[in-house]
Specification:
- This protein is an alpha/beta fold.
- It contains 12 helices and 28 strands.
- Helix 4 links the parallel strand 6 and strand 7.
- Helix 3 runs parallel beside helix 4, helix 9 packs parallel to helix 10 and helix 10 packs parallel to helix 11.
- About 55% of the residues are buried.
């Protein structure tokens, strides 16, 4: 029997609009208890009873929780440079007022070109005032804000100051902040295999370089920025592992905008080399990954909160080292992304930036086109929404909602979260990550049966409907639907269509098939709504 799960508060799905955020609602920390319920053995047809306590709201999902992260070469994509290619702006607007991060492993080999000059021998990309103006236009068109990475791998203080000054002047209030470097805890290691064709093999620092030297560099560069009258909001340390997090927060914390950490639950590389067999779809959806995520992110939030800082996971996705084909680019990644994001929000993270790019859909596994990217470009240049993007649409509908406790027990790999909107309505997210069991040699894999979920809440909730996130299978790369709708060729997305659920006041049943997500909305009667106000 699985431990009871205390979960997340609801949101007005895209059926209407995202949950309105009440003033002062943002808070670190959750509602207590386990932030998820892990799976166990694969049973036959199952039923789950879920009891929702709507009277005790906890952490609120901020309105800017969702974000995207892209490598610096993305600034040259026609999706950003051409005003005649509005699909990216449309795709971003549908995710709400998020945060776009331009950084990644490429940023430490990106040269600032405030004026024409000789290319540096290490450069693989450039960023110019024109690029910043294009990004400012994109931020204006979408209501997003930009988190800009600056080159610490090959630091030139004057160039860094000029780039920060130009970004502040051009973007103004659309600049969320800057980050100095990317994953400095890996600077002494050779470049990982998928990136060597573009980045070379050399490390960015000598083997003896470490946290103290890093802190000294950061302190010096911050002082130079301040002396030049350019003190932009700083995010950091943007490390791959948490070992430097506490020291950085203690040293740099008082003036930070947020503590920023990266997170990938699985990896495709070991010691810089590609694994012969990378992470599977089943491993991504398994219990061990969810447990690992909850423990790690809880620890990150505690470090941040101990220094009075918010925690943003400003680079994340399913499998590090540019993703795993047939795992990161499938519907399984969407099922994972829903659960991962709600775990992070429940324990108090203020945001997650899903890393990716705008490169080719077919040439995966590179800096420009990682397999896990929520977006990619078709041969004609048209942007395509991968399955993970649909998970972000679902998550957008939950922003502004507060987690409330949801108690349940099951041996099945199902995660349940309950949330309460500002208007008092509830959202119950049921993420069934159960994948087909492995079949014996020569036999087809056995598909799990659907699960019946019995919802119990206050009797004031008299109506219920459900919107589903679905695909032909967990391994599907096409055919994804949210509320029966799909993303159009122009990036547009119609409002999901809810299905009415039968039941009695405070008691409803929904059937959820394996490898799908159901979001149930429970609405109170008019008299109950008035009394809640």
């Amino acid at each position: 029997m699985k431990t009871a799960r205390v979960s997340i508060a609801a949101a007005l799905l895209l059926v209407a609009a995202a949950c309105p955020r009440p003033a002062g609602a943002l808070a670190l920390g959750g509602t207590g208890g386990q932030p998820f319920a892990g799976p166990g053995a694969r049973p036959s047809p199952a039923s789950i009873a879920v009891s929702v306590d709507s009277a005790h709201p906890g952490a609120v999902i901020p309105s800017s929780f969702l974000g995207l992260s892209m490598e610096t070469p993305a600034v040259d994509s026609p999706a950003i440079t051409s005003s005649s290619a509005p699909a990216l702006a449309q795709l971003m607007r549908q995710l709400g007022p998020g945060v776009l991060r331009i950084s990644g492993v490429s940023v430490d080999r990106t040269q600032w070109m405030g004026a024409p000059e000789q290319p540096a021998p290490w450069r693989i990309a450039t960023i110019t005032p024109a690029d910043l103006r294009n990004l400012a236009s994109l931020m204006s068109a979408t209501g997003w804000r930009l988190l800009l990475g600056l080159n610490l791998g090959h630091p030139v203080a004057q160039s860094l100051i000029e780039e920060a000054r130009a970004a502040s002047a051009i973007l103004g209030g659309s600049l969320a902040g800057v980050a100095l470097g990317n994953e400095p805890d890996l600077y002494t290691r050779p470049v990982s295999a998928p990136f060597r064709a573009l980045l070379g093999t050399g490390a960015l620092r000598a083997p003896e370089w470490g946290p103290s030297a890093y802190e000294s560099e950061i302190t010096s560069l911050r002082a130079a920025l301040a002396a030049a009258g350019v003190p932009p909001a700083l995010y950091g340390p943007d490390t791959a592992s948490p070992a430097w997090l506490e020291g950085y927060a203690a040293q740099q914390g008082p003036a930070l905008a947020a503590l920023a950490q990266h997170f990938y639950p699985l990896g495709r590389c070991h010691a810089g080399h590609l694994l012969k067999v990378g992470p599977s779809l089943a491993s991504l959806l398994g219990r061990r990954v969810a447990l690992h995520e909850a423990r790690r992110i809880t620890a990150y939030v505690r470090v941040a909160a101990g220094h009075g800082l918010p925690l943003r996971i400003d680079e994340a996705n399913s499998v590090s080292c540019a993703g795993q084909p047939h795992t990161s680019d499938t519907f399984a990644a969407a099922l994972w992304a829903v659960d991962f994001s709600l775990i992070a929000a429940h324990v108090g993270a203020v945001g997650v930036n899903f890393h990716g790019g705008l490169g080719s859909c077919s040439l995966g596994g590179t800096i420009a086109s990682p397999w896990y990217s929520p977006l990619c470009a078709l041969p004609g240049g048209q942007l395509h929404a991968r399955p993970e993007y649909y998970a972000l649409l679902l998550l957008r509908s939950l922003e502004g909602c507060a987690f409330v406790p949801a108690a349940y027990g099951t041996s099945r790999d199902v995660a349940v979260y309950a949330l309460r909107a500002h208007d008092g309505s509830l959202r119950v997210v049921i993420d069934d990550k159960e994948a087909p069991a492995s079949g014996r040699s020569g036999r087809r894999a056995r598909s799990p049966a659907p699960v019946l979920v019995a919802l119990r809440a206050n009797r004031s909730y008299v109506r219920a409907s459900v919107v589903r996130l679905s695909a032909p299978s967990a391994s599907a790369r096409e055919g994804v639907r949210f509320g029966g709708a799909s993303v159009g060729a122009d990036g547009s997305f119609a409002a999901p269509a809810p299905e009415a659920l039968g039941g009695a006041p405070g008691s409803f049943v929904v059937t959820v098939r394996p490898a799908s997500v159901a979001v149930v909305t429970l609405a109170a009667g008019a008299a109950s709504v008035a009394s809640r106000r």
